[in-house]
Amino acid sequence: MESLEHANNTELLTTLAGKQAAESLMQHYGGLTNLAQASFDELQLTKGIGKSKAAAIKSAFLLAQRLSRESYAAAPLLDTPESIANLLREQNRVYTVEHFQVVFLNTRKRLIGVETISQGTLDTILVSPSVVFYPAICRKAAAIALVHNHPSGISDPSEADIRITRDLIRAGQLLKIEVVDHIILGRRTDERPKDYYSLREGGFFYSA
User: What CATH number is given to the structural domain containing 153?
Assistant: First the structure.
């Protein structure tokens, strides 16, 4: 293939899996997001995909995730909902269950680090102030941003999302660690130009 830069998704996948298998994968999964979410064993259910090709495909997606998280020359400024969403979008795209993450910030709203606190659904997993703020205190964070994904693609907050957000805002006020936002990552649609929802922009941070 002369130019990979101009190749479509099926053509790029052909370099890893062969033409017939690549076409079968794209037809079955319909796009890269669903393909990235497929498990190692699920990939091997496609004719022509053995362990080595499944490993190559999973490795390609993992490399893409790591590239998106590769360190910057300077810690990125995370002072808008969009900048926070940009930081964790690719990492969360492949998750098939909810992952709750905390972004640690310094006094200038620059990134200190990110930690996944729990996974599952917010109705069933434990997202307590102690679990969220202990690592923030250890990292000497001045502020935090909360981030989690909705695998359904619909980024609207649930009642549990709102309740947990307000609980954590109150805890942060006591600890003098600001909760700057809670970002829910979903998917873009024609009706929803943004693939994320900011609870601060949505008005859920008032009278916390």
Answer: 3.40.140.10
What is the 3-state composition of the chain as percent helix, strand, coil, each rounded to the nearest 5? 45, 20, 40
Q: What is the dihedral of CA 199, 96, 65, 52, to 10 degrees?
A: 180
pLDDT at 121 over 80: no
Contact 134, 167 (CB under 8 A): no
What pLDDT, on a 0 to 100 scale, did the predictor assign at position 71?
Answer: 52
Is residue 204 included in any domain, yes or no?
A: no
* DSSP-derived secondary structure for 144-205: EEEEEE-TTS--PPPHHHHHHHHHHHHHHHHHT-EEEEEEEE----SS-S-SEEETTTTTTT
Mean pLDDT taken over the chain = 87
Q: How confident is the model at residue 64 (pLDDT cuts 50, 70, 90)?
A: confident
In terms of domains, do 90 and 124 share one? yes
Residue 47 reports pLDDT greater than 70? yes
Both 89 and 41 in a single domain? no
Rounded Cα distance, 133 and 120, in Å: 20
The yes-or-no verdict on residue 91 having pLDDT over 60 is: yes
| Beta carbons within 8 Å of 204's beta carbon, 6+ residues apart | 157, 162, 165, 166, 182
Helix (H, G, I), strand (E, B) or coil at 67: helix
